[in-house]
Amino acid sequence: MKDTLRIRYGFDLPDGSKKRVDLHFDPKNFRLINEVPDEPPFWTELKFSQCANCPLSADEHRHCPSALHMAPAVESLKELVSFDTVGVTVTQAERTVHAETSAQQALSSVLGLIMATSGCPWTDRLRPMARFHLPFASEAETVYRSVCMFLLARELLAHDLKGADDSSGFAQLKDLYENLHVVNRDMSRRLGAATRTDPARNAMALLDSYTTLLPAALESSLTELKPLFDAWRGVPISPI
What we know:
This protein has helices spanning 65-76, 103-117, 127-131, 139-156, 171-192, 199-225, and strands at residues 5-12, 18-25, 85-91, 96-102. With 240 residues, the protein is of the alpha+beta class. Strand 1 and strand 2 form a beta hairpin. Helix 1 packs antiparallel against helix 2 (103-117) and helix 2 crosses helix 6.
């Protein structure tokens, strides 16, 4: 596809074969613009294990947007076993990253990127993070990037929130991750019907671990990050 941003996941499988997942994004808003299956599998239908907090209506959306875009990747890699060790090369415009990791960890990275850019009303809020995709991010990196994204979003939208009560601190971020947990939980049920092997569901479990981790680890993780910001001490910062 011309005039798109592309992220490519190349897989070196245990049997010596290779698989490739190419994801194409709109360069302006970084929405996923890959073609979807002409005949989507049944588990992509919106009403099939629909997320409890899904605001979409089946009258307007026959298929779950995330599941619809996941289908080609899940189908392509369905023969993998969760703890297979695979070589993964992630090629972006800015860098190429290679890792030897488990199939479920690799697939978790792919599915997370798809979910954040495919149009789900909840995961769409993670699209700014997806734009600066960091494959195989650690726990500390994920907490840092999530908090930074949230604060930047709050800054950019501050003019729309003038006069709003800001005493809740990170309550909105915690609320978002609680809802993302519901999405991941119900998506896992959906993927259970997509394939007989378990990497996709286990990949979702890994992805979901961050939704339960962040609210619990937010305070302690921020305390650990504070020394990195020593240079900011004494710098006046205007409140939002």
